[in-house]
């Protein structure tokens, strides 16, 4: 499987200028290609092929006085910018024809030098390399200092140099990683994600919600207020924008570190992990939107998913409509309406449940049932009774 390894870069002022030129050239080629295809569409002309587009916006453009400066950067950077445009068009066409799953993808848009993220990509054809001294050698840019936090597991196939909104530079390597099997364990865990606690495990453990954004609100508010008092277009405004971006980057970095460590620990300790397939987009439309985004559930589940695939573990997602909180984990009885302010409840069978722990146990049981069904086991969970003779024709959802 392929993974990305990100490392911080510390370019010199001269290298920063060279990177800025490369960002600008890649952005120009992307926009020129997009403009040509849009003009051809408006004029009713055939779709410009990838090869013809590369010839017109790179090869022939370098020979003109208006685009002669494109020769000052690596040709691979320009070709990869067009590859991104072609991929964006393919995704757009696949989306509108129904061949692509997920949300609808819009057509490509023009890139701006004011975008928060600027990036260029080098492939093996560009002959980038990591020197013996540990620096990243990039064509027509030089040897850039890298802050290595770990070794690359294999030779990278490409590297993307990224400048974020906070003005930081990163190198993102794509490497081929062999799947590693962790020692087998009998432990399995169900996870109930929430806001009061970030995660409640089926074994009773509760992991506090760090609330990184809430804790940084005072610092962010002061930075935003200072930004609002600066004049548009001034140097002070540029500095204030960078301060706001750095504050948000610290929050995002702390959240990413937390989710990485927690997901790694859970995958190492358990052979199977069961989570709910939450509709985060829908929850983000409620009054809890800020807290939902601050929790970062989607990133956490995505990390669990790829780490489970890498280390030979099993990740099961159960239906989001499964009544995990209202279902008694002891007898299988489904309770009535249960508002969020009810944190514990008593089943008619006498079992007293913590709402979140009970939900995590039910999630684990549902995940085990799905795994058994996939392997040819029994479909009907043991806790549910069989339908009587008079119920065989009941419609789904009938009382």
Radius of gyration: 27 Å
Q: Tell me, what's the shape?
A: elongated
Structural class: alpha+beta
Major β-sheet strand ordering: 2-6-7-1-5-4-3
* Number of DSSP-assigned strands: 14
Percent of residues in helices comes to 25-40%
- Number of continuous helical runs: 10
- Can you write the helix and strand succession as a string? EHHHEEEEEEEEEHHHEHHHEEEH
Query: What's the end-to-end separation, in Å?
Result: 48 Å
Which ranges are low-confidence, i.e. pLDDT below 50, for 5 or more consecutive residues?
378-399
- Binned strand content: 15-25%
Chain-averaged pLDDT: 89
Biggest beta sheet attributes: 7 strands, antiparallel
Textual characterization of the structure:
There is one protein chain. The chain is an alpha+beta fold. 40% of the residues lie in helices and 18% in strands. It is built from 10 helices and 14 strands. It has helices at residues 13-42, 50-59, 75-96, 212-215, 217-228, 235-269, 280-283, 289-295, 297-311, 355-374; strands at 2-10, 118-123, 129-130, 136-138, 142-147, 158-163, 169-176, 188-193, 197-201, 206-208, 272-276, 314-318, 344-346, 352-354. The strands form 3 sheets. A 7-stranded antiparallel β-sheet has the order 2-6-7-1-5-4-3. A 5-stranded mixed β-sheet has the order 10-9-8-11-12. β6 and β7 form a beta hairpin. α5 (217-228) packs antiparallel against α6 (235-269) and α6 (235-269) packs across α9 (297-311). The radius of gyration is 27 Å and the shape is elongated.
């Amino acid at each position: 499987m392929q993974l990305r390894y990100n490392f911080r870069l510390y370019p010199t002022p001269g290298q920063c200028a060279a990177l800025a030129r490369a960002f600008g050239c890649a952005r120009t080629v992307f926009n020129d290609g997009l403009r040509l295809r849009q003009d051809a569409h408006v004029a009713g002309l055939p779709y410009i092929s990838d090869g013809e587009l590369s010839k017109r916006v790179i090869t022939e453009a370098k020979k003109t006085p208006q685009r002669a400066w494109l020769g000052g950067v690596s040709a691979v950077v320009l070709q990869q910018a067009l590859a991104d445009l072609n991929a964006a068009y393919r995704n757009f066409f696949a989306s509108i024809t129904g061949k692509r799953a997920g949300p609808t993808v819009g057509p490509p848009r023009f890139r701006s030098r004011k975008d928060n993220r600027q990036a260029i990509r080098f492939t093996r054809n560009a002959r980038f390399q990591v020197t013996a001294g540990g620096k990243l050698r990039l064509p027509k840019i030089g040897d850039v200092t890298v802050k290595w936090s770990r070794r690359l597991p294999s030779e990278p196939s490409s590297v993307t140099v990224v400048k974020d909104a906070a003005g930081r530079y990163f190198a993102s390597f794509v490497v081929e990683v062999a799947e590693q099997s962790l020692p087998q364990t009998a432990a399995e865990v169900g996870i109930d994600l929430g806001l009061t606690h970030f995660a409640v495990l089926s074994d009773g453990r509760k992991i506090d919600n760090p609330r990184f954004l809430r804790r940084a609100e005072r610092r962010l508010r002061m930075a935003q207020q200072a930004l609002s008092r600066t004049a548009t277009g001034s140097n002070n405004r540029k500095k204030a924008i960078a301060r706001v971006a750095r504050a948000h980057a610290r929050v995002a970095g702390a959240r990413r570190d937390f989710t990485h460590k927690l997901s790694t620990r859970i995958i190492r300790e358990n052979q199977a992990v069961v989570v709910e397939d939450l509709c985060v987009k829908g929850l983000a439309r409620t009054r809890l939107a800020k807290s939902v985004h601050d929790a970062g559930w989607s990133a956490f589940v995505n990390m669990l998913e790829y780490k489970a695939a890498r280390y030979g573990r099993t990740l099961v997602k159960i239906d989001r409509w499964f009544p995990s909180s209202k279902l008694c984990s002891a007898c299988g009885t489904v309770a009535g309406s249960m508002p969020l302010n009810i944190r514990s409840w008593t089943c008619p069978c006498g079992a007293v449940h913590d709402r979140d722990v009970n939900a995590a146990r039910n999630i684990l049981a549902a995940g085990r049932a799905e795994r058994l069904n996939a392997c040819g086991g029994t479909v009907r969970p043991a806790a549910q009774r069989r339908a009587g003779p008079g119920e065989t024709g009941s419609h789904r959802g009938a009382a």
